[in-house]
Design brief:
Elements: H1 2-30, H2 60-66, H3 69-77, E1 95-99, E2 105-108, E3 112-113, E4 121-122, E5 131-136, E6 143-148, E7 154-159, E8 169-172, E9 177-181, H4 183-187
EC number: 1.8.4.12
Protein name: Peptide methionine sulfoxide reductase MsrB
Pfam family, one: SelR
Length: about 190
């Protein structure tokens, strides 16, 4: 019985992986050439932040002194905050969402939408050069992790079930973010 269960688990994992590859291929085929550089990439990107001249590198002790325990757990140890608990999941302010660790501008309120998942969701980043994506095989799943390219902070994950024009949902932890209100919002 135990061997049968192991066999079924491996078979299901293989099906899930094949489905993920097929989904990546369908996304690539529906992406127009003019937006190819902004499209979701299913390729694993190496952890190489040397192309960002103002990259931030700190020790764990330095991060712990700057961040709350939950921020440290999520951004440095790849944790996840509970759904519907973060300060930005239902936030309606106008402005820029920045990395809580280094201040890198990541997302704008114009690209934020209510995905119903309980986490802040965006259909695109400010600039693809501000984030890094890579395969995440944790917890027996295959997902695509989103990191801050400037400091390597874990932000969340990106999924292919978002609205057009990108079809992407950047599902981001609130504790990974800070918010800078637009000038009109600051004056209110």
């Amino acid at each position: 019985m135990a061997q049968t269960t192991k066999y079924h688990a491996k078979w299901l994992a293989a099906l899930f992986l094949l489905g993920s590859i097929a989904a990546c291929q369908s996304t690539a085929s529906r992406t127009e050439a003019s937006t190819a550089d902004q499209a979701f990439s299913c390729q694993i990107k190496p952890e190489n932040r040397e192309d960002m001249p103002d990259k931030v590198i700190k020790t764990d002790e330095e991060w712990k002194s700057k961040l709350t325990p939950l921020q440290f757990e999520v951004t440095r140890n790849k944790g996840t905050e509970r759904a519907f608990t973060g300060k930005y999941y239902n936030h309606k302010g106008k402005g820029i969402y920045t990395c809580a660790c280094c201040g890198n501008e990541l997302f704008t309120s114009n690209e934020k939408y209510d995905s119903g998942t309980g986490w802040p969701s965006f259909w695109k980043p400010v600039d693809n050069d501000k984030i890094e994506i890579k395969k995440d095989f944790s917890y027996g799943m295959t997902r695509v992790e989103v990191l801050c390219k400037r400091c390597g902070a874990h932000l969340g994950h990106v999924f292919e079930d978002g609205p057009e024009p990108t079809g992407l949902r950047y599902c981001i932890n609130s504790v990974s973010l800070d918010f800078e209100a637009a000038n009109a919002e600051k004056e209110k």
